[in-house]
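Good day; I would like, with your permission, to put a structural problem before you. A protein sequence and the structure tokens that stand for its backbone fold form the material at issue. I would ask you to consider whether the tokens describe a fold that such a sequence might reasonably adopt. I set the record out below, with my sincere thanks for your time.
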Amino acid sequence: MTKVAVLSDTHLNTVTAEFEGLWRKFCVDADLVLHAGDVVCEEVVRFMSQAYFHGVHGNMDPPEVRSMLPSQKVIEIEGMLVGLAHGRGSPEGLEERILEDFDQVDMIVYGHSHLPVDHVKYGVRFFNPGTATGLCRSGENTIGLLEFGDNGVTGRIISV
């Protein structure tokens, strides 16, 4: 079983006490941490790199963060291909635009909309953790947890 903590759209200019608390509660015991973009500062990327970490940059990330993180990537977790991207443009059609960027993935983890999502569309599982520390559009800040194992993957969106 592989436990994955999923973050996106943290929009932090520094590592805050709130973020450190979230990290201790949800990320320290994870086997892997994913961040789907809009980190916003190098210090937060370096902080997350203390774990087994994969991240991508988003539209709000400055050049320093863009030089540290790719725009998208594919990660194999327990035999499943997971696309990691931020997203772009309007929330309307966001998943379709992201799907165009990947070939034959089982799952896509993304951000950008600040809205938590966990559903299957076009035969691909889409997972957006929302935002744990940014401006949430769902009414509450959230983080995602994924568990990969012999029976596939289970996902949870958790209010923080």
